[in-house]
Structure formats: C-alpha cells, structure tokens
Amino acid sequence: MNEEQRQFLSLLGQLPARLTAERAAWVLNCQLDDVPILVSARLLKPLGNPPPNSIKYFAASKLLELVQDRTWLAKVTNALSQHWCRHNARKRRHAAEDMVQVSPLCPSRQK
C-alpha cells in the first residue's frame, strides 16, 4: 500500500461523496483492473448512467455499506476468482494453439 492510499484510507470517516474507480478499489482492497470486472458482474454500480468509455464514479456511502456485508464480499471474491481463472485459461489455450504444428492434412489450422 503506498502512502497516498494510506492517507486516503485514514480519512474513511470523511470520504468524499463520489469516488473514482481507483479510490473505490482502495476501499475494496482490490486492484484498479478489478473494478470493471465487478461492474460487469453487477456487484458494483457506478453513479448515473455513464457511457462505457467515460470515467465512472461510485457512491462512498454505498461502498462503505457493501464492505460490511460478508455475503457481498464473498460474491466479489468469487466473481474475481472466476474472471481471472477464465482469463488465464483463455491465455493458456491460445498459447497451446500457437505451439501446435501446422499439418498439411489440417488446412483449417494454417495461419
């Protein structure tokens, strides 16, 4: 945890009303890359109706409420584990396909 995170989290009683994805990740003790995963899994909901490529903000009060819910935390943990498991499996599958010898009997495998 860097110093900026430590200072931010020490203010938990005085959080701003809206948190960026980065600060929401700090509150959840996860990586910034995990926030979009949680949004797509519908475990986190950004404020308003932001377009896909815009900055997302999250309600601090809602986040603080959610982190007290053990069941929700278990869902978050499971969703992140499943996402990265699928991601790594795809990566391994693509690596294995790249290593397959191209056979003249199997033209569909040729690149």
CATH hierarchy class name: Mainly Alpha
What is the count of DSSP helices, taking H or I runs of 4+ residues? 5
Number of E-type strands: 2
CATH architecture: Orthogonal Bundle
Radius of gyration: 20 Å
Task: Encode the helix/strand succession as letters.
Answer: HEHHEHH
- Give the N-to-C terminal Cα separation: 45 Å
Outline the low-pLDDT stretches: none
Count of the separate structural domains: 1
Helical proportion, percent range: 40-55%
| CATH topology assignment | Multidrug-efflux Transporter Regulator, Chain: A, Domain 2
Please outline the major beta sheet: 2 strands, antiparallel
Relevant terms:
mainly alpha; 5% strand; two-stranded antiparallel sheet; 111 residues; single chain; 5 helices; Multidrug-efflux Transporter Regulator, Chain: A, Domain 2; 2 strands
Please, could you describe this protein's structure?
The chain is mainly alpha-helical. The protein has one domain: Multidrug-efflux Transporter Regulator, Chain: A, Domain 2. The protein is 54% helix and 5% strand. It has helices spanning 3-10, 21-28, 34-40, 60-66, 70-99, and strands at 18-20, 57-59. A two-stranded antiparallel ribbon has the order 1-2. The N and C termini lie far apart (45 Å).
Give the structure's gist in a few sentences.
This protein is 54% helix and 5% strand. It is mostly helical.
Topology:
Elements: H1 3-10, E1 18-20, H2 21-28, H3 34-40, E2 57-59, H4 60-66, H5 70-99
Antiparallel strand pairs: 1-2
